[in-house]
Design goal:
By secondary structure, the protein is an all-alpha fold. Helices cover 63% and strands 0% of the residues. The protein is built from 14 helices and no strands. The protein has helices spanning 2-12, 20-23, 26-29, 42-71, 76-99, 104-108, 123-132, 147-157, 162-172, 179-182, 194-205, 211-242, 254-261, 267-275. α4 packs antiparallel against α5, α4 runs parallel beside α7 and α12 (211-242) packs antiparallel against α13 (254-261). The chain starts with a helix and ends with a helix.
Length: 276
């Protein structure tokens, strides 16, 4: 019996044989850049977007864990996670400067090979927006062709955002919050609430008493700021490369991106600053 267990361990323990390449599955990652044209710069276009999607996956991993901590009223572990998200966002912002080395003439050499694919279809970017509180039911139509993905997006639409979790955390600490803000339709876009602003003002005026809530608020402000910078750099890069042409997937392109730049995440964390 012991000999059989020893043999089983020998056949199932591959840790000593694990290499850098096999652990990271580099054969899959590095063979996933399938150009649709022979143009040199299409490789840049593919890798920028693939790398961005990997960073987005990590953002979702960290934000999801942070929301769990906040909902358990265990705020401190979330701070490291949210700091990491902010650093990842800086990486994503920097990626636009690399993509901006692609000139309009170069992009037009392979743009027609992209078909209907568009960054507008990035479901991970949508999941990040949902997690940060920007909900929009109509965007789900983009994913109707994939029932499994559509279900994932629909479930995420109805989940509490990290801001909803933060507001609930204030209520758990005894700060008065309107019932309309605590038990709202999570799939609807968040609307500013006077009681939420007043609660945050109490936190900011009594930092020693509410240090963890104050720290959480500042982490959210960091993330909100970085997300706005990412959007602005996205818009600027697209305008630099294609001007005001319609996007490859039929989106409005720059005009749409300019509208979303004006959206403000966590609105009361910004409005309170004028009243302090």
């Amino acid at each position: 019996m012991k000999e059989e267990q020893k043999t089983h361990q020998i056949h199932t323990d591959f840790s000593k044989e694990l290499s850098y390449g096999s652990y990271l599955q580099l054969d899959k990652i590095l063979s996933s850049q399938q150009r649709q044209s022979d143009h040199h710069d299409e490789m840049l276009f593919i890798i920028i977007h693939q790398a961005s999607e990997l960073w987005m996956k990590l953002i979702l991993h960290e934000v999801s864990a942070a929301i769990d901590c906040i909902r358990k009223n265990d705020l401190e572990p979330s701070f490291k996670m949210l700091s990491r998200v902010s650093r990842i966002q800086q990486q994503l912002i920097q990626s636009w400067s690399v993509l901006s080395t692609l000139t309009p003439a170069e992009y037009m050499e392979f743009r027609d090979k992209l078909g209907h694919s568009s960054g507008f279809q990035s479901y991970q970017n949508r999941l990040i927006e949902f997690a940060l509180g920007q909900k929009s039911a109509h965007v789900l139509s983009v994913y109707q062709h994939d029932p499994q993905l559509y279900k994932q997006m629909e479930d995420a639409l109805h989940e509490r955002s990290i801001y909803d979790a933060a507001i609930s955390a204030m209520a758990m600490r005894g700060l008065p919050i309107d019932e309309a803000a605590l038990n709202r339709d999570w799939s609807a876009p968040y609307e500013p609430n006077a009681s939420v602003e007043e609660a945050w003002l109490t936190v900011y005026r009594n930092v020693d008493q509410y240090w963890d809530l104050y720290e959480l608020a500042e982490k959210l402000v960091d993330i909100g700021s970085q997300q706005q910078l990412w959007r602005f750099n996205h818009m600027s890069t697209v305008e630099r490369i294609i001007g005001h042409k319609t996007g490859t997937g039929g989106s409005a392109g720059v005009s749409y991106l300019k509208k979303v730049v004006d959206h403000r995440f966590f609105p009361e964390l910004w409005s309170l600053r004028t009243k302090l």
